[in-house]
Structure formats: structure tokens, C-alpha cells
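Troubleshooting entry. Yesterday's outputs looked truncated, so today I'm pasting the complete records for two proteins to confirm everything comes through intact. If either block looks cut off, that's the bug. Protein one:
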Amino acid sequence: MEAKADKRAAVARRLLPLLAVALALAGFFALGLQRYFTLEALRENRDALRAWVDARPALAMGVFVLAYAGAVAISFPGASILTVFGGFLFGLWPGTPLVVIAATLGASAIFVAAKTALADFLRRRARGFLKTMEEGFRENELSYLLFLRLAPIFPFWAVNIGAGLLGVRLRNFMIGTFFGIIPGSFVYASIGNAAASAFDAGEDVSLQGVLAKPEVLLAFLGLALLALIPVAAKRMRRRPRKNRS
């Protein structure tokens, strides 16, 4: 009986991080905080936000990084809007670096929570998108993670959790996330950086419009293909061995 109780207690401790994330996300939506994470909210509050940043730049940067990291850590699905906020409030510099740092910290937090809680259990039962990820990570963790960050086949939050459940090394996860999200962060921050003049002119700001431009799509496709080169090279090195056998 004691052994069973200890086992249940150990499982409960491992599940606590994910439970905390789920409760935080539920509380976020229950309080209606998602209404502040929209382009319309940015338009309506732009003057007050800009005045706050001008008056207390260091505090504004710190609060932004914490808010962004927290949103990513609870797997809020609209974190890309915060990247636009970063570009609007801080410009491309230091807006883009702040976004990359905050997103990497938040992603690493939910990654560690998933890895701690259920990695051993679900890795043996991987199905669907987890199975697809598992095959890619088996070839080359870092290259495949860079590919997933550059070519968003799966949502950002799904990659964070999936990589943790599949036992990816924290070092590779952080490096792949940090460098893999730089191009996308720059694009989204550019939208925010240009939003002020668009708002003043009464124009609409659209994420889809920018991301659908051929030059943007081609740039991301090229970077994603570069990230897959080590995986392709590894497979090619294996082929001669199989042929010889």
C-alpha cells in the first residue's frame, strides 16, 4: 500500500507543472484577458502604451518580456500578436531581440513542464503529430527543430509540448527555438513597427496580408530547406551502408 501511495504521489508531483499551466490558461480566458491581445486593442490604446514606454523604457521592456514569456508558457495561441506589440512599442531594435528572448524563455518553460510530466509515458505511445515529430527528431534534433520553427507545420505551442514529450534535449530545444524564430519575429515586429503610421492614416493592419506576400513565403521556405540539409545529408550517408549490406 505504501509503495502504491508513493507512486501516486510521484505521478501527481510530475503532473503538477502541466496542471498549473492548464489552470493558468483557463484563468486567462475566464478573465477575458484575450481581448487585450488584438490589433484593435493596440489601436485603441496606442497613445497610452507609447507614453508609458517613453516614460519608463526599462520597466516597459521588463514587463513586456515577462508578459510574453508567460503567454507562451501557458500556451496562449495568439502570442504572435504580442510580437506585433513588441515592434510597435520598441521598434525593430530592441523589439525583435526582446521578442526572441521572451518567446524562448516561455517556450522552454512549457517544454520542461511537458518533459517532466509525461515524456516517458507518451513517448512510448506517440501517435498523430507526435509520431511525425518523433521521426523527424530521431534524424537530427536541432535541424528538425529549426525546420519546425521556420516552416510552421505545427503551431508554436504544439512544438513546445511535443518536443518535451518526445525527450528532446533542452540545449537543442533552446538553440533551435532561439535561432529558428528570429526571421518570423522580425517579420511580425516589422508589422508592428509600421502599424503606428497605418493607424494614424486610418488604414487596416493585417498579419495575413504581410505573411501571404510571395517574397516572405519564399524566404521562409528557403530557410526551412537549409535547416533540413543536415537531415538529408545524414540519410544519404546511410544509403551506401545499406547497399553494401
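Protein two, checking that the full record survives here as well:
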Amino acid sequence: MLVQVALFALGLVILAVGAEALIRGAVRVARALGVSPFLVGFTIIGFGTSAPELVVSLSAALNGSSDIALGNVVGSNIANVGVVLGIAAVVAPLTAAMRLLKVETPLVITTSVLLWALCADGDVSRVDGAILLACFSLLVAYMYRSAKNEPPEVKEEIGLSAGRKMPVWVACVLVAVGLVGLVGGAHIMVGAAVELARAAGVSEWVIGLTVVAVGTSLPELAAAVAGAIRGEADLVLGNIAGSNLFNVLLILGLTAAVQPMTVPPSALRADLPVMLGFAVLLFAVVANGLRVHRWEGAVLLVAYGAFVAWQAASAQ
């Protein structure tokens, strides 16, 4: 089991390094092709931090571990609110924009309900995947149109990472290395997770819902803590809401389109409702004066701790 833990950690490190290399290289290549810094930053923030979830879920589904693929998405959405937002708010209270209350958080709740409804028949089929991808296309079109109206200071902040200079050939190498790292890291991580589940007598669903989900949420956590320290509350909260939307609509949609997945009965009874509950909790803390206080961050962390303890107890 120690070997599998080491392999899981190794896969996670390779995954993180691959995601970082891919993001940096893609930004530079896009800038070389004349894409605006704002559009690059807007796209990278959304996709970049969700790249580990995408590759892990795809890799797991293609290798016959659909429980890990689906559990990773459901667990990541729970962890984004309970762990990522919880820790970020404890680091520094976050002031939310009215747009988050009126648009993004209701969308997170809506997509959670949609996923629960699509899973009700016991699987996530290719048709379900197509529905999720169609919704994602509509979301991107809406977000792009609304993003063009953001204040200049927000556009500048989002586009900062696109201004760094490096030779284009180096950027291309970084993209290639990043892709190899993502695929290789995901393969190692998923394989180790499956073996750990078997050795510990824990279901692949629980492993995907907790250990794998938290691992693939680390990019969001790093970005959220850095943003909280710098006082960039809009980007922290927007990244959390955006990541949850990406996870359901893009990642699960694409994964299901490639490889349909079965839904464990426990997911319908408990875990999908919990994901919806955390989405409602996100709305509630934002609605409380458009400010996520430290005590609310602590409540989110306690709620996530209770969820993990419940999963551990259920696995016995």
C-alpha cells in the first residue's frame, strides 16, 4: 500500500507540473498568434485549473473506472466550496460582487440539479454528455459577451499572466511537456487510486469522491489562497464558481461523450444531494451581505470535514 501511496503522490506532482507547463506555454503561444491578453487569461483561468479534473476523469473512464471519473467531478465540486473557499475565506474575508449572487451561484445550483436529474436513470450516457456540452457552449457564449463589459482593472488583472515573454519554441515545448505530464500523471494517479481502493477495501467511488477530488482541486486551492492574500476576492470567488460549472458541463460532458458512465446508487441517494447542498451553501454565504467572513470559511471547512468523516464511516 505504501508503494501505491507514493505512486499516487508522484502522479499528483506530475499532474500539477504538467498543468502549470501547459498553462504557461499555451498563454505564450496564444499571444504569439495575436489573441488578446484578456481573452487568453479569461480562458486559461477557467480551463487551466480544471485541466487535472478533465484528464483524470477521462483517463479513469477510458480505463473502466467510471466511479472514479464521476466521483472526481462530484467530489471536486464539493471540495471547491468546502475546502478551497473555506481556506481562502479563513486566510482573508472575501467581498463578492452582486453579479456572483445574481448569475454565477444560481448557475452552479442549476447545473447541480441538472446533473442529478441526468443521473436519475442510473447512468450518464453519450446523450447526457451532449446535453452538458450544449449547455457549456451556451455558458461560454454568455460569459464571453458579459466579460467584454468588465471594468478595465478586472481585464488587466485577468490578462496579467499573458504578458510574460518567452521564445515561442520554448512555449511549444512547454505545451508538449504539459500534455505528456497531464496524461502520464493522470494515468499513474488513477492506477494508484484503484489499487489503494482495492487494498483498503474502499470503493473506487469513495476514493474518487475524496482523495482524487481533493488532489485535482489543488490548483484551485493554490489560486484561491494567492488571490485572497492579494485581496482579489472577485477572482477567487469567480474561479470557484467557474470551476464548478466547468467540472459538470465540460469535463463530465466530454467524458460521458467519449465513455458513458454508470452511477452508483449511493451517489443518487446521498452524494449528488450533498453536492447540491454545498452549491446552495455557496449561494447562502455570498448572499449574507455579499461577504464571505472568516467564521463562514470555518463553517465550510467543518462541513467538509463532516462529509469526509461520513464517507469514512460509510466505507467501514
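Both blocks look complete. Sanity check on protein two: The radius of gyration is 19 Å.
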